[in-house]
Design brief:
GO terms for molecular function: FAD binding; oxidoreductase activity. With 332 residues, the chain is of the alpha+beta class. The protein is built from 14 helices and twelve strands. Strands 4-5-8-6-7 form a five-stranded antiparallel sheet. Bound molecules: flavin-adenine dinucleotide and iron/sulfur cluster (SF4). The site of iron/sulfur cluster (SF4) has 15 residues, from helix 8 and helix 9. The site of iron/sulfur cluster has 15 residues, from helix 8 and helix 9.
């Protein structure tokens, strides 16, 4: 681990000032991802600013929707009665995240900004443009069954591993931030960047900006919604592929659909062809399968990740079937 200056802050202004002074400063929340990266020498900041004592952990319903503090623990959000009842896609995504121990430490903001699970990035030695700009991309040259199917570049084919981000994209959530230029909100879809030629720039956040909360519009609570995930083992594992679906239904007919895919791109990815196909139709098993196939539209496999394409179709189908069961009043 490279030595760094450690600052524990009690107010957002001090955190922002540290971040604005030195763009290489990293914020520490629950530490479940960052500490590993520091220990392995993958992150080498001059300064670490511990924001865990900031008052950003409340979960509150407002007239417009739901506001979840960025420092709320995943376990508390997953168990929150209103979130389970009205935003079940969030509760389901968090319920399938990591393990109970990790969920007790990990925070909402940290989950969204966790780094990729690309093995070459994490091994600390292989050429990797994200870790060592200009060194090359071992995943593109080597074997990577996890690589992105959408939005990848010559420079990087990594995927974003968050379960939560996928559910939030399907619910049209926003991320609220505060920084040197004041407060602003970022639609979830614009929080993460595609890799392009600069895969080390992963989010839209400016130096010194802290995520304070996640906002989910009230309209999302009225939708049928589901989250489904496929992984190599039944717990304690990031997604191989995942999908979140939210449907606005009027007397059983789909008026609007949002489908988000996970672990298939550098950011959570909208399946827009499948969304369009659902509009004006009634959800049933056949339509769920048709939309699952449509969700693979535009996928660009490289060598060893083509197996994720049929898995993606199945996981979207499963999430839509869950919505159909909810519609039919079947709790299973
Ligand atoms: C064994 C294991 C299994 C896991 N399995 C899964 C899984 O199945 N699915 C899944 O989605 N995740 C999984 N995770 C990832 C885990 O959910 C994240 O590590 C965790 O959510 C990160 O939150 P944290 O508070 O610990 O963030 P930290 O590790 O403290 O920080 C992570 C990043 O976020 C930044 N950051 C944190 N909070 C803020 C903020 N408020 N404003 C600005 N920047 C901020 C930090 O600077 C850092 O870059 C797993 C982790 C482990 C260790
Ligand atoms: S896919 Fe991205 S993170 Fe993985 S080795 Fe290539 S540049 Fe690095």
């Amino acid at each position: 681990m490279q030595p760094f200056a450690y600052h524990k802050v009690r107010d957002a202004e001090t955190a922002i000032a540290h971040g604005a002074r030195d763009p290489q400063t990293i914020f520490l929340a629950g530490g479940t991802d960052l500490v590993q990266l520091l220990e392995d020498g993958i992150s080498r900041p001059q300064g670490v600013v511990d924001i865990s004592a900031l008052p950003f952990d409340a979960i509150a319903t407002t007239i417009d929707g739901l506001r979840i503090g960025a420092l709320a623990k995943l376990a508390d959000v997953a168990d929150h009665a209103e979130i389970r009842a009205r935003y079940p896609a969030i509760a389901a995504a968090l319920g399938e995240t990591a393990s109970p121990m990790v969920r007790n430490m990990a925070t909402m903001g940290g989950n969204l900004l966790q780094r990729t699970r690309c093995l070459y990035f994490r091994d600390g030695v292989s050429p990797c443009n994200k870790r060592a700009p200009g060194s090359g991309c071992s995943a593109r040259l080597g074997h990577d069954a996890q690589a992105a199917l959408f939005g990848a570049s010559e420079a990087c084919v990594a995927t974003h591993p968050s379960d939560l981000a996928v559910a939030l994209l399907a619910l049209d959530a926003e991320v609220l931030v505060v920084g040197p230029s004041g407060e602003r909100s970022i639609p979830l879809d614009r929080l993460h960047r595609l890799p392009g030629e600069t895969p080390w720039i992963e989010s839209d956040l400016e130096p010194g900006e802290v995520i304070t909360a996640i906002f989910v519009p009230r309209e999302a609570a009225g939708r049928a919604q589901a989250y489904a995930k496929l992984r190599h083992r039944a717990s304690f594992e990031w997604p191989l592929v995942s999908a979140a679906v939210s449907l606005a239904l009027v007397e059983g007919t789909i008026e609007d659909a949002r489908i988000a895919l996970g672990a298939v791109a550098h950011k959570p990815w909208r399946a827009e062809t499948a969304e369009r196909l659902l509009i004006g139709r009634r959800i049933d098993d056949a339509l769920a399968r048709e939309a699952g196939e449509a969700a693979t539209d535009g996928a660009r496999p490289i060598a060893e990740n083509a197996a994720k394409i049929p898995l993606m179709a199945r996981i979207v189908t499963r999430a839509l079937q869950d919505c159909a069961r909810q519609q039919a009043g079947d709790p299973s």
